[in-house]
Sequence to fold (263 residues):
Amino acid sequence: MAPPPKYDVSPEVPIRVTDLLNQAQIPCCLWENLMLSVLGASVEVTDADFIIPDQQMATAAVVLVSNNFKECTMSVDDCPKFGPLRGEPRPARHFFFDDGTHTGENSQTVNLWAHRSLLGHFPEIPCNVPSRGVHGHPYISAAHTTLLPPHVPGRCIGRLQDLVVEGRRVNVITFKPTPLIEHLLILLSRDIDRRPPAEHVWRSYLSAILEAQNYHGMADVAGFEWALTRTAWVALLENSPSSFDKTLRRMQADDIMGRTRAR
Fold:
């Protein structure tokens, strides 16, 4: 039996960081293992990762530094934490929880990812999210919505609770699973056999999301097949049907499709 996942990041951290960015009118969305754990996946969560608009990256860095987060001053290739991950997607900037001392890959950090550079076709988070919240949005949802799985000790963070800082309601945002799956499939088709480290990341995200949906009884087979159809059209429009065929074969090898249907 696999050991239970670690939760080295308290849910208070993403709530606090979101509140700081929201006050500066910077929209942000959970990403990486923090997002996956909120969506119900059984993953290790050691960092707090956020996607923000590319053009607001510098402002976000000023906000975090002014609130006692220490930014890593090394180049990403020289950084002991992210340097070894060449070929994989890496954050644009990262900040330490504590005194800013590197402990290599075990350093705990708040990581900021540039939306357009990372996710390409996926629409950016609307700028009015910090002030208005999410109301029936097609691809993002509030991280406290009851549609998300509950917290399961030893497995996942699940939907967040107590999203209030100094009397302010904090709009922590995450991606909805089905549109996220669709875009991850597009990224997988793009990177398959071209960037193996990135391909591995997208495959692991897909496996984690679909495993979470199956575990919590939330698997949306119709939505997943719709995402596959959309991805096939994108691949054809980009004259890369072979990439889509490879994507299907890799997914079958990962048993993603089979586990989605086995509810």
User: Anything to note?
Assistant: The chain has two domains: 12-175, 177-261. The first helix runs from residue 12 to 23.
